[in-house]
Amino acid sequence: MQREVGTLPLAPALRARLAAAGFQTAQELLDTGPCGLSKEIGISREEALEALQVVRQECHGDAPRTAGGSGATRKCTALELLEEEQTQGSIITFCSALDNILGGGVQLTKITEICGAPGVGKTQLCMQLAVDVQIPECFGGVAGEAVFIDTEGSFMVDRVVDIAAACVQHCHLIAEAQQEEDHRKALETFSLENILSHIYYFRCRDYTELLAQVYLLPEFLSEHSKVRLVVIDGIAFPFRHDFEDLSLRTRLLNGLAQQLIIIANDHKSAVVLTNQMTTRIGQSQSTLVPALGESWGHAATVRLIFHWDNTQRLATLYKSPSQKESTIAYHITSHGFRDVQPPAVTQSTEGTELNPRKRPRTEGEKQ
Amino acid sequence: MAAKKLRRAQLSQEMCERLSRYQITTCQDFLCLSLLELMKVTGQSYYEVQKLLCKVSRACAPKMQTVYEMKLRKSINPSSAFLSTTLHSLDRVLHGGVPCGSLTEITSPPGCGKTQFCIMLSVLATLPVSMGGLDGAVIYIDTESAFSAERLIEIAAERFPTYFDSDEKLLCMSHSIHLYRELTCCSVLKRIMSLEEEIISKKVKLLIIDSVASVVRKEFDTKLQGNLAERSNFLTRGASVLKYLAEEFSIPV
What we know:
A: alpha/beta; disordered C terminus
């Protein structure tokens, strides 16, 4: 109640008038009442009433916050967070090595950034995740929907159809092997049409459309509350050309990062961004580093870098709060993102009907 | 979309006038400002500014479509998804041919046959759909002056002798291939930007740029300071316009 007038979210002109009239705290405003206020500063009674309602809303918002309830600032103990994190699922990638280094898969409520040279598989992984997020819970998935924001235009519908078909087939095989009732029931809703109709696709042509879309995202997510994954494919592309003012770019990117963090936390969804690589020219040699500068490196919680080693694709976990840095190899097959099998196994199972590069069923889905 | 005037974003007249005093006339300017700056500029309270932001964002945000709708739309005309190259193994590897609606890049050391391949694709695009073509015109932007019309006629006559049996048909085909010779980066960019109207008026179904690298390498010496940034600026700007053209008209580039 002792809140200063200058910190209230009123129009600047109004605030200036209140300061000139000598009001200092919110309590004083509430005590004066709308008629007194309108006479003192010379505004109409309706405007005074509106201003007082805003003040009252703000002050009432303060009270429950200090009592530790849920609001803009959430206070809870580490134990509650631990319980939450343990029951929270993660989105599997169908490549068990990658899931292992990520600690189970792509974590919800965190921002994961995937950097890599062109052609290494970033968009493929995004499409795989958009399908995997919809896997029903009895198979170990999070049973959510996906939002795909595309800025580069590299989204191919036919490829998603291939990946989704492979995923459905994989789940069918598991269901047949384990013969449980809830598996069969889940499979009824887990069909190709269902998967495709729950991936919401937005094509943003430049950074203004991207900014506008991210502003509208919270509203969209509250309408579609089952969304558990937001993919922005190519966050670097619209920001890399046509920007003379680099400080504006940094500011916009930071604002974007803040909003994405809020979205990830409020809606319990994972945010996945893909970034490009740029060359940093050093003293004697040049190295490939993620684009968009140093300050953008702080935006993502988890950073994965994809790179080539001759003909083998490798993924390195570069930054993570809970897992250690490590590198694994992966494969992109016609069915999507998969593990690399050790050579002996591939040769012996080449002739079987099952795709030998699919995740082995003995590992199964958790629980 | 970004250059959309605020007037058309359904903001009130007086708000637009007030904003134009601060030189904020397009959606792009509006969305680039932070919340506090917007409050100062519009003179509105925090909640009002948030509502305004939503209104402006809605005016320029892209439309949502589910992937299922996209798939249905594609399956309605399957023949327009690819331009077959008539080289069967290449078509198999490319899953049908050169995809419509996206950019395809052909690179190789000199002399391998890139320009020949482009000339052949131009012939294929002018063929009717029943023969695997796109039945449309072709825009060929040539930066190396390597396009030879005689070779074009030769390829058409040898490859499809039954179709191009008369001179008239050959003339008709060469008439629908529009050649533009551009020799500098600026003119290439200007040409690309002006293509939208030409594509509609001439019913163009294929866009070829031969080649991007030659004109860029001629003008931008990467050893000089600052040239690298300018070069990538030019390339990304050109790329985004080409992507837009490819997607909007569903043509291969």
